[in-house]
Records
---
Amino acid sequence: MKRRRRYLLKTVAALTLASSIPGRAARAQQPIRAGFSIAQTGPISAGGQAALVALRMWADDVNARGGLVGRRLELVVYDD
């Protein structure tokens, strides 16, 4: 009886581990999306456009170094 139980527990543990590995690999491929709103049009657009250029340069630098926690960084920008 003990032998069957050990076998069952080992099998369940192995299947659980095996099923979690592909999920982790798939999540590692997805980029980290950082979203924000910034003025791109209107009376205060000059400052917003300059800040957006700086943020995009920062994101490109981060991605060139390997990303955040091994994942690519993607900026999502909305005009407010």
---
Amino acid sequence: MDAMTICPRVLLDDEAILAVDKPAGLLVAPDRYDKNAPHLMAWVHREFGPTVFNVHRLDRDTSGAVLCAKTKAALDDLSLQFERGEVDKEYVALVRGRPPAHQGTIDRPIVVDLEHPGRMKAARRGKQAITVYEVVERFRGYSWLRLRPKTGRTHQLRVHLQYIGCPIVADPWYGDGRPLLLSEIKRGYKPPREGERPLLSRLALHAHRLTFRHPLRGDQIVVESPIPKEMDAALKQLRKWAA
């Protein structure tokens, strides 16, 4: 992804807050190992000035709403809301398999996976991690979920979904990394000789909605990032062939 061609959608822009729709495949902030890797905040600073700071982060491969603060006071207030669990974070994800119940809570600690640098894993002891899930739609072999993390651990949703046997589609770390293919869901489909083009090849996880208190006015704010086109197109194919 070329840093000069990045042009994310602005979801909210006022005197204290900037909310941006981050595309999949883009870092939020500079990478500690690769300083030249494109990141969202380079675009934010170029367009809105160097005094705007991201309040939280998303994984590189996760798309969706990212909240930034324009003042130190707003940053402190919003950071405290995240720390206290007062921000309602809603994600959507397409996963393989079916959760054990239509809705439920995954309460499983997460720790660093020492055998795989950079990754996390579920464990009996570690940092508390809680995720509330709800099945929105069921398909043959897949489920479309609504997720609300109550804690903010690294890779929490990906680890928790792997833990219950429902890894996110195209997750190379906590799943098999395989994309969604039409040949997997359409009976009798014969791929073309030149090879099959995936319906969805990116990590099928999207930060859909943030609900929080405005740091200046105190009223409730809802920021929503639309479901990306490629995920919506994949859902339409699942509804057609794997309902």
---
Amino acid sequence: MTLSVLDDGLYAITDSTLIPPGQLTSSVARAIAGGASVIQYRDKQAPDPARYREAAALATLCRQHGIPLIINDDAELAAAVDASGVHLGRTDPPIRQMRERLGPRAIIGVSCYNDLERAVTASQAGADYVAFGRFFPSHSKPHAPPAETAVLSRARRQLDLPIVAIGGITPGNGQSLLAAGANLLAVIHGVFGQPDIRAAAAQYAELFRDQVYSKLTKTETETN
């Protein structure tokens, strides 16, 4: 895969209903400037030519900044724009098929909702990260079934790969998910639905700096 481990941090997911036409690349650039460490391109409505143009522009932008671009659901689009990988949901093709299409270096993520068994199966099949959620009421997916924070703790004990939390995450509640075992916080509305995208992303990025500081402090205390 492109990266052996995704860097801990903000996993920002685009939404065409939140971003004005023609402003996708500049909006994502602001999210990156604020501290996003992974970008996912997600658009299920635009025609294929428009999706290709947008994804290709984001792929170029993300390469310039050295961060992964993940394409939601669409392995063909990921291959066409040379994205870092693809994110798969419940109804998408199996990991094996995606790996054959995208190659051994692609990053393949899998939505696991509140299902630890699904995450274990995905890990065994070669997934590079798993995502759980929604954990809180969500603007983007208000009807998605809820997940319990305990699933993050169980996943952290059983799995040796990055864990993503998604669903209604804010700078105020995100720390609880990191403490439970999440490595990345996936956010849509909390970043791209805000008037100042860079500042919004920076608030999430600060949670991870706080997490690193807490770990260092704990290590120093135990050492002394």
